Amino acid sequence: MNQALPAVREQFHTPGQQLAADRLGMWLFLASEAMLFGAIFLALTVYHLLHPDAMQAATRRLDLTMGGINTAILLTSSTTMALAVKLASQGRRWPTLVALLATVLLGLAFEAIKVHSWFDEARQGLLPGYGPPFPLPQPAAQLYFHLYLVSTGVHALHLAVGIVLLGGVALGLMSRLLKVPERAVNVELVGLYWQFVDIVWIFLFPTLYLVSR
Amino acid sequence: MPDKLILLVVWIVLLLLLGAGIEASRLGLGSWQAAVVLLLAAISAGLIAWFDMHLKYSSGILRLFAAGVLIFLLIMFGLGLPDWLTR
Questions:
Q1: How far B66 CA lies from chain A's nearest CA (Å)?
Q2: Which residues contact A9 (CB under 8 A, 6 or more apart)?
Q3: How many other CB atoms are there within 10 angstroms of residue A127's CB atom?
Q4: What's the whole-model pTM score?
Q5: Which of B4, B8, B37 sits opposite A206 (nearest CB)?
Q6: What is the pLDDT of residues A78-95, one digit of tens each?
């Protein structure tokens, strides 16, 4: 394949060096994101240790089926995303686009189910600020649901950003403004972010739904 | 094994691990429950990082940055939890 090398910006000597810097930058950003979610996980862990009974009562109010389906959806989206990165590196524009759109659709399905769960929980009075009075007798169970809303909310926001980024990459591919394999790194970096957000959910799901069930 | 086949196998393993985690939470493992479901989650996360995030094919420095994520978290949990775990 007669492919042009990506344009090398002036601070880099070679395309390879630029690519390595792009990847390192994304991983460093992901490390900072891990600190944000890490703090939330630490708070959840302390709540579990301090109030095991209240955490169990609260956990059992969550819909495990919906949570499980959503986890399966995200795990599948990790695979379609990885496939898109692979196809982009091979310069296969249309298959890349199909894999990206599948990832976007799976992301949207996750968000729809999550929003549905929030409404369901709010109608039971479980979430702060809306609906009937809190139904559980343990005060600490309210702490759990506050953190549940914050952690799933911050995660859903991250996923929404991922959906917008993937949509942007897909538009670039469709309009040919983004050429593969020359700029396959764009797909790869958005892919890294997407996989990271999936990994956050892989830990959120057991921490919220399974640990104290 | 071709790369795409690896991704497919990883996907199936991920779904099996998810099922195993949900089943484990129903077994009544007591104090082991948290450890088991979190270990299964860690294996899933490791598979995604290694295969779907291409650490398998990455340079040493990139793997070091990825390990940095774990080291930061280890410091945060290492300094944050002993007080609660030992009371």
A1: 6
A2: A18
A3: 20
A4: 0.93
A5: B37
A6: 999 999 999 999 999 999
